[in-house]
Amino acid sequence: MWIQQIVLGILGLSAGITVAGGLFSFIIELGILADFADRTHTGDNILLYEDAAALGGALGNLFFVYQIPLPGGAPLLTVFGLLAGIFTGCWAMALAEVLNVFPVFIRRINLTKCVSLAILGMALGKGVGALLFFWNQWGG
């Protein structure tokens, strides 16, 4: 019985490391961290930025999985929300720069007439998904 738990723990840890490595590779490949370093003229600290991003992801997962309480309450939550919002906004802008393939793809598959319907479908799907998620969270 305990051997099965050890094997499952090793498998889960390996899968988590693989997914996290892929995510951080994706973030670095998009050039988000390099863009930060370029805009702040601190390119000599790029390795520090990469280490901080990886450490933040690892610590965030540990706090989430093990439900570790953090001191600081609402002020710390406000600072975290601000920093997470800045990071998410920068990531979205980097994706927008990289994903200029959408206009070419839309023209090639002749989807120009239905783009508004596709966007509406994605928005409705996102809205319904969020509604169902929060409905279940609130005990509906």
From TrEMBL:
Annotated InterPro entries: SpoVAB
Regions that span the bilayer: 6-34, 46-68, 74-102, 114-135
Keywords, in A-Z order: Membrane, Transmembrane, Transmembrane helix
Protein name, entry field: Stage V sporulation protein AB
